[in-house]
Amino acid sequence: METLQSASEVFDQVYLDLRAGVLVLAASLDRIDRCEGSERIGEDLRRVRIEQSLEILATPGLNRAEQIQVLFSDAYTPGWNSADSTDTSDVPGDDT
Amino acid sequence: MYFFDPHVHMISRVTDDYERMARMGCVAISEPAFWAGFDRGSVDGFRDYFRQLTEFEPTRAGWSGVQHYSWLCINAKEAENVELSREVIAMIPEFLDKPGVLGIGEIGLNKNTPNECTIFREHVELAMRTNELILIHTPHLDDKYKGTRMIVDMLLEDDRVDPGRVLIDHVEEHTVGLAREEGFWCAMTLYPVTKCTPSRAADIIEMYGDDRIMVNSAGDWGPSNPTAVPDFIMELRRRGHAESQIKKIVYDNPIEFFSGSERFEFTPPDVFRENAPAGVDAE
């Protein structure tokens, strides 16, 4: 089920939404920075992730949404459920 | 266009929502057992909940000409109470021969904890023992990627699990591939803020194709929209996709997956509505 529209058709359709979204983002960051204690927010991991996501947005690519989703995700440890795993954070067990 | 909402918690919605959904083309819904907004205190609380899901909701849906199906489990939030969870899992077979019960769900993870994993595996064991379909809830936000991978890992631990009989729900851009690569069915939830928008769901369909995938509203007691599937239909129409392709996602695919349950008896909507019962006053 491939995309049927041309890039210019899609861009025409989403331009105002993109413009509005960027303005919401800008105004929200301004609002935070106007407030007392804004310098401490800069150390908040969530704010760091927002900055990193903006870098992803500014980079050409076809999977920016996926990259941003992964950026905002907890780390996964392959083999967490294997018998010899040293990762104990998610080892299933009966905690009762 | 007729559509099937494969995941909506109608127990939390008013009868007018059934009516609005029907007017927009909804002919059937399936309703997974879920968290009521508070932790229930006893197995009897769940027994009454399952009675409502399997007895009253199909009746109420029928007043609007909507066919109702259900899934049974104790959800991941309440799975932290392992003792109660085991009592509920032991009680579920009382309801597995009720008409319209499609399987075990929505089981899964919430905060990816050890207790959640324990109860997830015990639900899967029940489903394997009773040959039921499985509907899986994946966590929200930051927990989703890790939780989805853990769920897939646990399903792959068990050779009896047929991926074609498992639906992994609430997939987004970073988890849809995890589900599809292993042959599972998957679904996208059209939900304000925390899950997919209709346009992002349409993007995912365009990137990953329309096989083994469906969309739902997951309408519930929180901010949600039980008529979100028609929004998705409109989005695909705006993009020029054929009606037959849209129908595959919102009607044919749910029916194909649910047909894996021996209790899935679907009546074509025109026939069902000819025989729909009249409604009654609630008071």
Descriptive notes:
The complex is a heterodimer of chains A (96) and B (283). Chain A has helices at 7-34, 38-41, 45-57, 64-71. By secondary structure, chain A is an all-alpha fold. Among the domains of chain A are: 7-41; 42-73. With 283 residues, chain B is of the alpha/beta class. Chain B has a single domain (10-274), classed as TIM Barrel, CATH 3.20.20. Chain B is built from 10 helices and 8 strands. An 8-stranded parallel β-sheet of chain B has the order 1-2-3-4-5-6-7-8. In chain B, strand 3, helix 3 and strand 4 (101-108) form a beta-alpha-beta unit. The longest helix of chain B has 20 residues, at 43-62. The chains are: A mainly alpha (96), B alpha/beta (283). The interface between A and B is medium-sized, with 25 and 35 residues.
A few lines on this structure:
The complex is a heterodimer of chains A (96) and B (283). With 96 residues, chain A is an all-alpha fold. Chain A has helices spanning 7-34, 38-41, 45-57, 64-71.
Distance from N terminus to C terminus of chain A (CA atoms, Å) equals 48 Å
Kindly report the oligomeric state of this protein: heterodimer
Mean pLDDT of chain B: 96
> Strands of the largest sheet of chain B, in order across it?
1-2-3-4-5-6-7-8
Q: β content of chain A, as a range?
A: under 5%
Q: Quick check: average pLDDT of chain A?
A: 89
Q: According to CATH, what is the class of chain B?
A: Alpha Beta
Q: What is the fold's blueprint, element by element?
A:
The complex is a heterodimer of chains A (96) and B (283).
Chain A: H1 7-34, H2 38-41, H3 45-57, H4 64-71
Helix pairs in contact in A: 3-4
Chain B: E1 3-5, H1 15-23, E2 26-32, H2 43-62, E3 67-72, H3 82-91, E4 101-108, H4 114-130, E5 133-137, H5 144-157, E6 166-168, H6 176-181, E7 185-189, H7 198-208, E8 213-216, H8 228-238, H9 243-258, H10 269-274
Parallel strand pairs in B: 1-2, 2-3, 3-4, 4-5, 5-6, 6-7, 7-8
